[in-house]
Specification:
single chain; 182 residues; Metallo-beta-lactamase, Chain A; 6-stranded mixed β-sheet; alpha+beta; 15 strands; 3 helices; 7-stranded mixed β-sheet; globular
C-alpha cells in the first residue's frame, strides 16, 4: 500500500508556492507539483530525511502547467513527467491512457478540469486513506469558493464533487491537507 508525505505545504497570497508531495508506492517514487518553492532545500531536505535522492524519483506529476507548480521539475532529472495528456521521458513525448491512467499500482491520474481546462488530480490509495493531490482547491479551508482563474466554475464544481466522493484526504494546491469527512 502507498504512503503519502507532504514535503512542503504551499501558500498563495502576496507570495506563492505550491504544495509539494511525495508518494511512495512499491518501486514508484512520485513527486507532485515541485513548483515555485524559493528555497529548494524546503523540497530536498525532507526528501533526504526520508532517505530519498532526487535522482531516484521515478515520476513527477503536474496538476497543471502554471509555473508555481512546475518550476522545480529539473530537480528530478531521471523522472518521467506526467501531466493531464502525456508522459515525458528525456526528450520523448509519450501518450498515456488519460483519465484513470496509473502512474503506479495505487496512484491514478484523474482529469479534473476547473482551475484550468488542463487540470488533473493524482488519486492515491494509501495506508491511511484515499488522497487527492489537486488544485480544485487552493487552501485547507477550501478557498477560494469561486476560483478567479477558472474558465468555467460549473466544470470546477463537478470536478470538486468527483474528488470529494472518492477522497478521504485532500492536499490542495497551496496548503495543508484537509479531511473530507467522507
Amino acid at each position: 500500500m502507498a504512503t503519502v508525505h507532504l514535503l512542503h505545504a504551499g501558500y498563495a497570497g502576496d507570495r506563492v508556492a505550491s504544495s509539494v508531495v511525495l508518494v511512495l508506492d512499491g518501486a514508484a517514487r512520485i513527486v507532485v507539483d515541485p513548483g515555485m518553492v524559493a528555497r529548494r532545500s524546503l523540497i530536498l531536505d525532507p526528501l533526504a530525511e526520508l532517505g530519498i535522492a532526487p535522482a531516484s524519483i521515478s515520476h513527477v506529476f503536474l496538476s497543471h502547467h502554471h509555473p508555481d507548480h512546475t518550476i522545480n521539475v529539473a530537480l528530478f532529472p531521471e523522472a518521467e513527467v506526467v501531466d493531464f495528456w502525456a508522459r515525458y521521458v528525456g526528450d520523448e513525448w509519450l501518450d498515456h491512457d488519460g483519465d484513470g491512467y496509473h502512474l503506479s499500482p495505487m496512484a491514478q491520474l484523474w482529469l479534473t478540469p476547473g482551475h484550468t481546462e488542463e487540470d488533473a488530480s493524482l488519486m492515491v490509495e494509501a495506508v491511511d486513506g484515499t488522497y487527492a493531490m489537486t488544485h480544485a482547491w487552493w487552501r485547507a479551508d477550501r478557498s477560494p469558493a469561486l476560483d478567479p482563474f477558472a474558465p468555467d466554475q460549473a466544470i470546477l464544481e463537478a470536478s470538486r464533487a468527483r474528488i470529494l466522493a472518492a477522497a478521504d484526504i485532500v492536499i490542495p494546491g497551496h496548503g495543508e491537507p484537509f479531511r473530507t469527512g467522507r
